[in-house]
Design a protein that fits this description.
The protein is mainly α. It contains six helices and no strands. It has a single domain, classed as Four Helix Bundle (Hemerythrin (Met), subunit A) (Up-down Bundle), CATH 1.20.120. Helix 1 packs parallel to helix 6 and helix 2 packs antiparallel against helix 3.
């Protein structure tokens, strides 16, 4: 899908997040290049270095202008967006559960969340945000080379 230039950097990071989700899902199933413990270590690093900063850009610069629209269909999307960000953060905070089952759950949540944003939420942003609002996203989050999630988890 062709994405507007202002959201391309975030969209590129979604691709990397999908690679992370697929990789750690395989580890959770015993088919990966890492042990479950090593995969969790990589997830924590990727979350701190890539995912959480990505979440923050969305939460500070994309979501507030959408919330101001007060459209029922957008409000439903935003409720899901906020719920999924909370759930993903809770997976990271819950250091007592670092087993294969919780790793698989994290991978599934991340995969489904990225697909939702790419197929639904970003389309709503492109349709409903002003040029100025979109430009601000690009200004605070320009496109940059991707090395984080993919290289951290897939190379071993």
């Amino acid at each position: 899908m062709k994405r507007c230039p202002q959201l391309e950097a975030l969209s590129d990071e979604h691709h990397s997040a999908l690679v992370l989700a697929r990789t750690v899902s395989r580890c959770a199933a015993g088919r990966g290049n890492f042990s479950v413990a090593q995969a969790w270590d990589q997830v924590e690093k990727a979350f701190a270095n890539e995912l959480d900063p990505h979440f923050c850009v969305e939460e500070k610069f994309m979501i507030p202008p959408l919330e101001k629209k007060s459209l029922p269909e957008i409000d439903e999307m935003l409720a899901r967006f906020h719920r999924e960000h909370r759930e993903l953060r809770e997976c990271i905070r819950n250091t007592q559960k670092r087993d294969a089952e919780s790793l698989a759950r994290f991978a599934e949540l991340l995969h489904d969340h990225v697909r939702f944003e790419e197929r639904t939420l970003f389309n709503a942003a492109e349709e409903n945000l002003s040029q100025e609002e979109l430009d601000l996203i690009l200004e605070v989050h320009p496109r940059r080379p991707q090395e984080g999630l993919v290289s951290q988890v897939t190379q071993k």
